[in-house]
Each structure stands twice: as C-alpha cells, then as structure tokens.
Specification:
- This protein is α+β, with helices and mostly antiparallel strands and about 90 residues long.
- It has one domain: GIY-YIG endonuclease (3-Layer(aba) Sandwich).
- Strands 2-1-3 form a three-stranded antiparallel sheet, with helices on both faces.
- A hairpin with a 4-residue loop joins strand 1 and strand 2.
- The protein is globular and about 60 Å long.
- InterPro entries: GIY-YIG_endonuc, GIY-YIG_endonuc_sf, UPF0213_domain.
- Belongs to the UPF0213 family.
- Pfam families: GIY-YIG.
- This is GIY-YIG nuclease family protein.
Length: about 90
C-alpha cells in the first residue's frame, strides 16, 4: 500500500539582533539569519549599517511563521535598549 507523503514542515522564520560597530542593535527577520547577517556585513542588507557596519549576530529566536516573526520583531523593536541588551546577553546559540 502506498502511504501518503509526510507533510513537509515549513521552514522556520527568525527574529534576530545584530550589533553595529557603534554599539547600536538592529532588529530584523529572516528565514536564514546567518545568510542575512552576511548580507548586512557585505553592505547588501539594511541601510541602517551604512554609517556603522554590522559586527556580530547577537540574538536569534525561531518563530513558526513569517507573521509570527513580524509580530515578535515589532515587540522587540518597542523594547528599551537595556531590554534588548538583556536579550543579547542571555542568548546562547545552538
């Protein structure tokens, strides 16, 4: 008997924080935060990094969908810088 194919799990989306050379934190979303960080470093990412280059990916958080990642990004962007720094300090990469 033929079994139906297993449903393919959607690729997760991530919210991430990148530290700029001047100490600022940039928040964004991507389905591949390492690739997106490399784009930021190469100057092909956000205009945010034109004045101060990206130096470190300091936080990532997996989300089930793009819409969930966008909601989480909005919440993080509303945080005070001190709260964002706490996220970055507490982050333990896999």
């Amino acid at each position: 008997m033929n079994n139906p194919p297993e449903p393919i799990a959607p690729k997760p989306w991530f919210v991430y924080l990148v530290r700029a050379a001047n100490g600022a934190l940039y928040c964004g979303i991507s389905n591949d935060p390492q690739r997106r960080f490399a784009m930021h470093q190469s100057g092909k990412g956000a205009r945010f990094f034109l004045s101060s280059p990206a130096v470190a990916l300091v936080y990532t958080e997996a989300c089930a969908s793009k819409s969930e990642a966008l909601r989480q990004e909005r919440l993080i962007k509303k945080l005070k810088k001190s709260a964002k720094e706490c996220l970055a300090r507490a982050y333990q990469p896999d």
